[in-house]
Amino acid sequence: MIRFESVTKRYADGTVAVDGLDLEVPGGGITVLVGPSGCGKTTSLRMINRMVEPSSGRILIHDRDVADRPPAQLRRSIGYVIQHAGLFPHRTVLANVMTVPRLLGWDRGRARAAAMESLEKVGLTADQARRYPTQLSGGQQQRVGVARALASGPEVVLMDEPFSAVDPIVRAELQDEVRRLQRELGITVVLVTHDIDEALSLGDMVAVMRQGGHLAQFAHPAELLAEPADDFVATFVGRDRGYRALGFVDVAVTPSPVLTARLGESVPAGTGWVLAVDEVGAPIGWADATGWGGPLTDSRLHRLGTLAPAGASARTLLDAVLSSPSRRGVVVEDGRVVGTVGADEVLRALGTLR
Ligand SMILES: Nc1ncnc2c1ncn2[C@@H]1O[C@H](COP(=O)(O)OP(=O)(O)OP(=O)(O)O)[C@@H](O)[C@H]1O
């Protein structure tokens, strides 16, 4: 959908930032450009909306050369999100988000409605819309940046290190949000990051670039982990790639029934591990009824491990097992316990995969 054809960018001082890049970004997904500092990610991204002009080669969106479109018009049709949101400080949040619709010539009412809708999509309120950017947290400002990029309903959104300036928790929330919005709106997102974990968790496809603006590998995250094209990619992808690859592996393991009890219910001595559940069947903790019996109380409970949703990846299942005091991973559906799995079952299922 976005095609780089032998694209090279040589800056005026002779720096070759991108060298003969051939890349086909599929429509309707998230494609991540990742690589070490200075490998040409930002330059590649900015050539899509003509903020940087290629020295040779061409870039096509829907088979149409971007060079044939006036830069200002092209940029209005493509959303753009940058690291520190890049908001106008002296304009309200709403006015910021209305910018592109207004530039497109929409009347005030239509632009305002589109901006409010867009702000709502990223979880911001009408009250926040009236404020100035500095009156919001860094994470909220970044949401405004995303809302602004989406306000005119672009098909393509470019994001340059959009989450690097926020803390890890906000970052994870924003990543989820972008994933959700991409699916909901069916847009094509091209995102630049230097963080391989972000690339692997967000990307439907990941382009790993290396110094000198060369493409090292373009693949699905699971393939990058399982079959890095060369030593550079293997090193860049990092340690634990065998284990991390399990995050993309589905295994057929049927959860076994587990003994559950509500608080106050009597548990016979010698029962072993019992999973405490609340009134709707959601797990609340484990109790070890090996050496005692009697009513189950709060004080008997050990902390739950992580929970694996039904159909979770091998990595999530194993994590549920390893973090559980009973060494049985709890599988839930709609928050309710459906059963448990053991490490041996997950490993056996993995062993039968090709
Ligand atoms: N305007 C410019 N003039 C000259 N050289 C430039 C210019 N912009 C970028 N470069 C150089 O081009 C190369 C690629 O830069 P680019 O910003 O595209 O890399 P990047 O992978 O996005 O890096 P980072 O992760 O550090 O932002 C670097 O060597 C950089 O110094």
Short description:
The chain has helices at 41-48, 71-76, 93-103, 108-121, 126-129, 138-150, 168-185, 196-202, 221-226, 231-237, 241-245, 314-322, 343-351; strands at 2-10, 16-25, 30-34, 56-61, 64-65, 78-82, 156-160, 188-193, 205-210, 214-219, 260-261, 266-267, 272-277, 283-289, 294-295, 307-309, 329-333, 336-341. It is α/β, with parallel strands linked by helices and 354 residues long. It starts with a strand and ends with a helix.
Plain-language structure description:
With 354 residues, the chain is α/β, with parallel strands linked by helices. It is built from 13 helices and 18 strands. The chain folds into two domains: 2-239, Rossmann fold, CATH 3.40.50; 260-353, CBS-domain (Roll), CATH 3.10.580. The chain has a six-stranded mixed β-sheet with strand order 6-7-8-3-9-10, with helices on both faces. Helix 12 links the parallel strand 16 (307-309) and strand 17 (329-333). The two termini are 32 Å apart. 36% of the residues are buried. The mean pLDDT is 92. It binds adenosine-5'-triphosphate (ATP). Residues 11, 13, 15, 17, 35, 37-43, 194 line the site of adenosine-5'-triphosphate.
Output the keywords.
354 residues; alpha/beta; Rossmann fold; CBS-domain; 2 domains; six-stranded mixed sheet; four-stranded antiparallel sheet; 13 helices; binds adenosine-5'-triphosphate; P-loop_NTPase; nucleotide-binding; AAA+_ATPase; transport; ATP-binding
